[in-house]
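Box S2. Input/output pair 1.
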Amino acid sequence: MSIEERSTVVFATGVGRIKEEKPKAQRPQGDGVVRIQLKRLSGGKMASVVTGIPLDEDELKDLARVLKQKCGVGGSVKDFNIEIQGDKRNVLKAELEKKGYIVKLSGG
């Protein structure tokens, strides 16, 4: 690999700072079933993880916000998965079924 192949233009006099376009993360294809599993974290804590929701990043963040408000806890969106603090699987299942998703509880 030569130096020309590894180097990228960072600044050009006439244009200014040049920013490369980052590729947008692709949502993994699922089977149409939303799965909720319980994940054990360090310190004896637990998190309910919702996977398989066929939404884009922005819509997923909005749904996560609504689910966090319904459960009354915190959480986050990581790698197209919604993580909700605590064992809230039954509440999450009821809310997602109200929104028309097919939901299964998976894992132990």
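Box S3. Input/output pair 2.
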Amino acid sequence: MTIYNFGSINADYFYQVPHNPAPGQTLAATGLDHGLGGKGANQSVATVQAGAVVVHLGAVGRDGEWLLERLVSLSVATDAIARLSCNSGHAIITVAADGENAITLCSGANTAMSEMQLTQWLAPIREDDWLVMQNETTHQVYVARMARAQGAHVVYSAAPFEAKAAAEVLPFVNILCANEHEVEALQQVQRISSLASLGLDGITRQKVIDLCRAHDIPVFERNFSLVDTYGAQTPVIEIDGRPIGGGDMGPVTRRIRGLYQDLIAQVCA
């Protein structure tokens, strides 16, 4: 299994200031630091450190050689990172004495990649592979559609959040990573009451479904309301303090739970 991370690479510049500047104010910084950043680069580094095989898909500009060197030093391969003639992505981050910060982001090379280059990089992606994306690049729909067409799973971190961009890529996403407020905004754009109606995958959910099918346990998927669960046979024994069924785990749930525990032990061995 390979994780393809299509994500941003930024140079982060941190300015220590007494307070964040007011409109029209010129403020002298008391310190300056810089480092590798970008939501994409951060995720690639974290994934490599977790022991996965990662291919980072991205771009830096003519000023980005030190960013590549930093990625290599953190064991992130740079074979699928384009070197473009524009500026690299960068962020100006002012950090006040009380810890509050303000960020100005320039996308630079992160939004200058071509579909042709991405097509070449994604050509090897296969059924057991994963594509991870954030919202600091362009061509997200194109990349997600291509990955799904080739059988890969797609994980989308909807940050920085933009409802329209998230809605466009959502049909090709297996797993959506978003906070409560982002989900509410996305539901409004989609005009739905719950993202569950879209059938997004969940890692635990899919594993349970796979286990049931592999062991001839009947399983099907449909939308249902909270009220529907009160009189149903479900693997849940209590909802909002209300016992479901007799309040005890039934034989089918016990069997599925045992199969799932065996799977965890096998994977973690």
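Caption for Box S3: The first strand starts at residue 3 and ends at 6. The two ends are 18 Å apart (CA to CA).
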